[in-house]
């Protein structure tokens, strides 16, 4: 049981320069006994309102250097404070605020929301077990307008999809990775490096790109590239929800549409998922 969507903004000041972290936190506990479920005995139950207050107090006292470190702080607090807690799991996602720049100069206290992927993390621990940390990015929408195709697939009497060797590849990406046991990592540096790897593997070289024969191959290529570049990642899960665009037939308007005007197909949409780990 636990408390979901604890939302707040943490403002940190260093002289004239301000720093912000707006987060959404979910905390869940498992206790050493199930007596509250079986017998209605609430003597060991930590109210979810107390959980919320603990999260807010820790944010006030410790700040949020990174969301991963904040999740670790919350896990450690519940484990060290309450002997009846057998397991704790914390999920945190961060609102995408970035410092505003004016003529290349960073502003001291103004920020802009840039929806280019939501950073999130999880931390979990069993009593007498290791504290395990996960990082991730979601709602990252990517597109390339060529260097993608889909050919040679299985066909039967229900197949109507034509083969293509030049199409738009667009998808909304969810990626989650495991660091294994918690260590003194530079979580900001690693997260930014993984995001850069995702973009590079998806797009390819800036002057020519990288051909994708399928969404599945693109998913695996991204995972392989991250594992080759970021040694701290042990397991990486990736889901790519496909966004399709159909070429609009404009013959009745007296025009030939050479893939210049396309209509997005909202539903149904395909999805490719893979989890890949080191040996």
TrEMBL record:
Keywords: Oxidoreductase, Peroxisome, Purine metabolism. It comes from Galbula dea. Pfam families: Uricase. The keyword Oxidoreductase applies. It is found in: Peroxisome. GO terms for molecular function: urate oxidase activity. Belongs to the uricase family. This is Uricase. Its EC number is 1.7.3.3. Pathway: Purine metabolism; urate degradation; (S)-allantoin from urate: step 1/3. O2 binds at residues 48, 242. The gene is Uox. GO terms for cellular component: peroxisome.
